[in-house]
Amino acid sequence: MAGNDEGLWVRRFHPADDAPFRLVCFPHAGGSASYFFPVSRALSPSADVLAIQYPGRQDRRREPGLATIAELADGVTEALLPWLDRPTVLFGHSMGASLGFEVARRLEAGDVRPHALFVSGRVAPSRARDETVHRRDDAGLIAAVKELGGTDAQIFEDEAILEMVLPSIRTDYTAAETYRYTPGPLLRTPIHAHVGENDPKATVDEVRDWATHTSGRFTLTTYPGGHFYLNTHAPAVIGAISDALRPSDLRVTQ
């Protein structure tokens, strides 16, 4: 199954047409769909994993980036509509968590409730920080990205690659840092939050407040590590997703 926008937004590295549920993955700022290739490989064929590709990077590098979470959420939601024929789980890391949340809000407004929302390494929407990395010059932006440790260091040594990826990194940071929660109905979708205990971008207390954004179940899991704890603890996070998706619990929630 696919919509007209599949070639733009959705990447399926290991298609699993008979899987009982779908997992939609939203990358961090400066990230791409390929970040979730290992997740797709680990969960296939028990899950049909859709990794979202934002404009302005890799095979979408000729497209202008979208500098607001709202624009990204509108585009992703429309692209996902043809894929909602089975229980759908959303997973977002960092900026991707905010985006996953806004996509969940849009889906629920259209009477489609995701089976679960997993948010990783991101403060709750109501706990926005006043951050201005996106306003720094190129050197300052690069320094901030390096400090978090989630990007291959070789990228910063290759001027040609750096020139290609910097615009999308800046656009993503703009979207992430200028995002502000607009009050509205609580999600009914359960939220499962994950965070590194030493994450400089999201304290455990800031992440715990995701509980205030759902009327459904909420869980919080912490790990040793910083903002990209996920690189080390991916098997545990994947296991948590699998545990939350026991076959007896799966149903189309509309």
UniProtKB/TrEMBL annotation:
<dbReference type="Pfam" id="PF00975">
    <property type="entry name" value="Thioesterase"/>
</dbReference>
<dbReference type="InterPro" id="IPR029058">
    <property type="entry name" value="AB_hydrolase_fold"/>
</dbReference>
<feature type="domain" description="Thioesterase TesA-like">
    <location>
        <begin position="24"/>
        <end position="245"/>
    </location>
</feature>
<protein>
    <submittedName>
        <fullName>Putative cadicidin biosynthesis thioesterase</fullName>
        <ecNumber>3.1.2.-</ecNumber>
    </submittedName>
</protein>
<keyword id="KW-0378">Hydrolase</keyword>
<dbReference type="InterPro" id="IPR020802">
    <property type="entry name" value="TesA-like"/>
</dbReference>
<dbReference type="InterPro" id="IPR012223">
    <property type="entry name" value="TEII"/>
</dbReference>
<dbReference type="GO" id="GO:0008610">
    <property type="term" value="P:lipid biosynthetic process"/>
</dbReference>
<dbReference type="GO" id="GO:0016787">
    <property type="term" value="F:hydrolase activity"/>
</dbReference>
<dbReference type="InterPro" id="IPR001031">
    <property type="entry name" value="Thioesterase"/>
</dbReference>
<comment type="similarity">
    <text>Belongs to the thioesterase family.</text>
</comment>
